[in-house]
């Protein structure tokens, strides 16, 4: 059989893996944008859902498609994963008898891949020392699965970011969402967590870029290469210039690599930027398939799609996947159906505030709107819980007093209210912090603050031990000096 030319997608080459089963031949009967309908002669020849189908354009470029629906009359509806300009009706199509597969995690460290597991880093082909892993597989229950009712052991991951470590502790095996509108610092906060957790703690990490900017992905890769953490990280990208099929499937490609690491007994940190783009790609696919959207304009399968992804982020007694998900909030509307569907699966919700950005308070985390299910004395300890509770009370009081101060000024406050207001401003400033990943932009050296230093600093502010120090002195510092 003559070798076919390599696939061309946006001027990048995708090598197709040989099928382990017999290739079935069909015929293209309809092309509607990225949706292609393919007819097969016999019902036995019909490919199953998610199976790869390939065809060729007029100029000989290969088009890779994925089966998304089976219709009557031996017809399947496919979503093009690669550029399909020049694809014609009546062209032959070949069902490959396989689904998208990713390299084994051992071969992924230090590599930048696309949703097909193909390299994008110009470092040559990825070594396939072990069999590839299908991105579509049922969730397996491990023998070491944590059984409901048994006492669970909680392990805290220190991020070195003061406000996160105090109010929203990262627990091994948890799912944390960073929610915010445009230009509030979701990506920067995510990158800082990667820097601190991977570099300081030596954890294994998978970063999945779903529907985000190529520039950001390039900067992330170069930053990791420069800081020397690339050899502990696998990167999987499906950027915003890709087809909706790729932007949708890339999260499953990423979680497959994370599962592969977990099966080898490793504790994995799984980063996704951005989960909203995944739901957006699902909405595009749904519209192209002709499905009637829900009342809010999203796909009718929104809940099941988000659940299918999150169901695979799970832990066992032997190893874990800890997820950190950036979630774009359209128009800063936290009641958006896609956002609500996503954060129903999260253990901790970190909401970024535009008001904090306007005041120059970075990271721009809103401590009132944000929440964590792990703020419990049995998990974090009595002292940590007490200080975190006091800090939340101070921020709650600050929100009330700011409305009053905006109208009448601080002179009309009672002495007690003035004292609380000043302490709240100091605590708010203390929670700002220079980031390592933003050093080149801010000119300030990044700070990693140990949890004990964070607790001590907050204790001093909340209990009035630094009442004589002006609030400005707490802005953009690391730990509080004795």
Word description of this protein:
This protein has 482 residues and is an alpha/beta fold. Helix content is 32%, strand content 20%. The strands form five sheets. An eight-stranded mixed β-sheet has the order 10-16-15-17-18-14-19-20, sandwiched between helices. A six-stranded antiparallel barrel has the order 3-4-7-6-5-8. A two-stranded antiparallel ribbon has the order 1-2.
- The level of helicity is 25-40%
Alpha-beta content class: alpha/beta
Percent of sequence in beta strands? 15-25%
Distance between the termini: 76 Å
Total strands: the figure is 20
* Major sheet strand order: 10-16-15-17-18-14-19-20
CATH fold-level label of the largest domain: Rossmann fold
Q: What does the main sheet amount to?
A: 8 strands, mixed
Radius of gyration: 25 Å
- Could you tell me the mean pLDDT? 89
Principal-axis shape = elongated
Total domain count: 3
Helical stretch tally:
13
Question: Brief overview, please?
Answer:
With 482 residues, the chain is of the alpha/beta class. 32% of the residues lie in helices and 20% in strands. A hairpin with a 5-residue loop joins strand 5 (52-56) and strand 6 (62-71).
């Amino acid at each position: 059989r003559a070798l076919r030319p390599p696939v061309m997608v946006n001027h990048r080459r995708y090598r197709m893996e040989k099928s382990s089963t017999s290739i079935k031949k069909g015929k293209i009967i309809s092309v509607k944008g990225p949706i292609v309908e393919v007819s097969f002669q016999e019902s036995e020849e019909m490919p199953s859902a998610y199976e790869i189908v390939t065809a060729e354009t007029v100029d000989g470029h290969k088009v890779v498609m994925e089966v998304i629906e089976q219709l009557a009359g031996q017809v399947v509806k496919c979503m093009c994963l690669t550029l399909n300009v020049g694809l014609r009706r009546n062209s032959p199509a070949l069902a490959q008898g396989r689904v998208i597969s990713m390299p084994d995690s051992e071969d992924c460290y230090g590599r930048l891949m696309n949703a097909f597991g193909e390299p994008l880093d110009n470092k040559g082909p990825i070594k396939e020392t072990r069999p590839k892993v299908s991105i579509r597989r049922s969730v397996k229950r491990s023998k070491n699965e944590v059984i409901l009712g048994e006492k669970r052991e909680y392990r805290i991951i220190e991020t070195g970011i003061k406000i996160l470590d105090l109010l929203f502790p990262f627990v091994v095996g948890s799912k944390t969402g960073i929610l915010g509108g445009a230009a509030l610092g979701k990506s920067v906060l995510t990158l800082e967590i990667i820097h601190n957790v991977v570099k300081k703690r030596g954890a294994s990490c998978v970063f999945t870029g779903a529907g985000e900017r190529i520039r950001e992905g390039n900067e992330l890769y170069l930053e990791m290469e420069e800081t020397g953490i690339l050899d502990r990280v696998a990167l999987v990208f499906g950027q915003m210039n890709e087809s909706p099929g790729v932007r949708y499937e890339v999260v499953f490609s990423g979680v497959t690599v994370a599962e592969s690491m977990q099966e080898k007994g490793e504790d994995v940190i799984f980063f996704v930027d951005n989960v909203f783009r995944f739901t957006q790609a699902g909405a595009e696919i749904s519209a192209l398939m002709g499905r009637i959207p829900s009342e809010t304009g999203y796909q009718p399968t929104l809940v099941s799609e988000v659940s299918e992804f999150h169901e695979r982020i799970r832990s066992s007694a032997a190893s874990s996947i800890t997820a950190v998900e950036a979630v774009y909030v359209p128009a800063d509307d936290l009641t958006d159906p896609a956002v609500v569907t996503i954060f129903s699966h999260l253990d901790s919700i970190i909401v970024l505030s535009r008001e904090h950005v306007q005041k120059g308070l970075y990271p721009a985390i809103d401590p009132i709107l944000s929440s964590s299910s792990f703020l419990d004395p049995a998990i974090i300890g009595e002292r940590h819980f007490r200080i975190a509770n006091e800090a939340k009370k101070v921020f709650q009081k600050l929100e009330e007093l700011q409305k009053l101060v905006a109208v009448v000024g601080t002179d009309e406050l009672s002495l007690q209210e003035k004292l609380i207001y000043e302490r709240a401003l100091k605590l708010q400033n203390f929670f700002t912090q220079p980031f390592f990943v933003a050093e080149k932009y801010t000119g300030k050296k990044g700070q990693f603050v140990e949890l004990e230093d964070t607790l001590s600093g907050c204790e001093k502010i909340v209990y009035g031990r630094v009442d004589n120090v002006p609030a400005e002195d707490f802005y953009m510092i690391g730990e509080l000096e004795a």
